[in-house]
Write a structure and sequence with these properties.
- The protein has nine helices and two strands.
- It has about 260 residues and is mainly alpha-helical.
- The protein has a domain of about 170 residues.
- Helix 1 packs parallel to helix 3 and helix 3 packs parallel to helix 5.
């Protein structure tokens, strides 16, 4: 009599690959759903869904590395998800909100942003660092797709926050979208913080800060997003300065090593 075999979707050795990919698929579902809500003129929920997709995108890679569940399939799936959730969905939200009022020019801007996003993702997949350039892991070339997807929504977020500043934010939407598209494909270094070391003494303060951000997002969602977008834009020139200093330091050390070898 044959023993009953338990039904398994995947082998026990492969189950660690499921969780990161489930998070990735959840992100693409949120991105596509945000388009549906923008068509229904429910722009507040559309923006929230893009935010949730960005949070899942930040988690899936880290979870995969933590449980040793990284794979080539997951890498490709993540890129495709990023294009849908941050290269298509946010700019379509903007299109249904304001860019459609500009006719063909509005649609052209929509396409330009999407093309820049897919080019940025393709370049990211091909980016490799040499062992002596490991410090570059803490920097992206250009702004990452999730950041770009949220940044182009800044004019809409500003309007949803109901801040009374007597300023027509809609008028700058086309120009701001083009600016973010250019930053996506630019080679301006921006902070990645993938390999940043955290002192045990500061862990409590960092967790407190993260808790405050999440609480702020729950009760003051759009105001908090607006502040975060502004802070991120300010960090770009700071990132450039940090990158330049690191690069100069690396070049100096390399030249000293070559000088020692000659001697």
């Amino acid at each position: 009599m044959e023993e009953n075999k338990k039904f398994k979707i995947v082998s026990s050795k492969k189950t660690r690959y499921l969780l990161p990919n489930i998070l990735t698929l959840g992100g693409v579902c949120l991105g596509i759903s945000s388009i549906k809500f923008s068509i229904d003129n429910n722009f507040s929920l559309a923006v929230i869904f893009i935010l949730l997709a960005a949070i899942l995108d930040a988690l899936d890679g880290r979870v995969a590395r933590l449980i040793k569940g990284t794979s080539e399939f997951g890498k490709e799936l993540d890129s495709l998800t990023d294009f849908v959730s941050f290269g298509i969905a946010p700019v379509l939200i903007l299109y249904f909100w304001e860019l459609n009022n500009y006719g063909k020019i509005g649609w052209a801007i929509t396409l330009i942003y999407s093309v820049c996003c897919v080019l940025r993702l393709a370049r990211f997949n091909l980016t490799k660092f040499e062992k002596n350039q490991s410090w570059k892991i803490n920097f992206f070339e250009g702004i990452p797709a999730p950041a770009g997807g949220i940044l182009i929504l800044t004019p809409l977020i500003f309007e949803l926050s109901n801040l009374n500043l007597n300023f027509s934010i809609k008028s700058i939407t086309p120009f701001f979208t083009i600016l973010i598209a250019v930053l996506l494909v630019s080679k301006i270094p921006t902070l990645s913080l993938k390999k940043i070391s955290i002192s045990p003494k500061t862990t409590g303060f960092i967790l407190l800060g993260i808790g405050i951000v999440f609480i702020s997002l729950m009760f003051f969602t759009f105001e908090t997003l607006l502040i975060m977008s502004f802070v991120y834009l300010i960090s770009i020139p700071l990132s450039f300065m940090m990158y330049s200093n690191q690069s100069k330091k690396e070049n100096l050390e390399t030249s000293e090593d070559e000088h020692e070898d000659v001697l």
